[in-house]
């Protein structure tokens, strides 16, 4: 999947960045796992560079 993401990213021309602010206790601490498994790959495929910051 990462190879496909890199191909899409290289062909898109302009880079897009997204900052995700993550509450580590959200959804009984399961949200980070879901974010990395589902959301992050979709954003990468869309040509975004994803930066995840955790709150305290």
From TrEMBL:
Descriptive protein name: DAGKc domain-containing protein
MF (Gene Ontology): kinase activity
Cleavable signal peptide: none
Residues in DAGKc domain copies: 13-56
Coiled coil spans: none
Family matches, as Gene3D superfamilies: Probable inorganic polyphosphate/atp-NAD kinase, domain 1
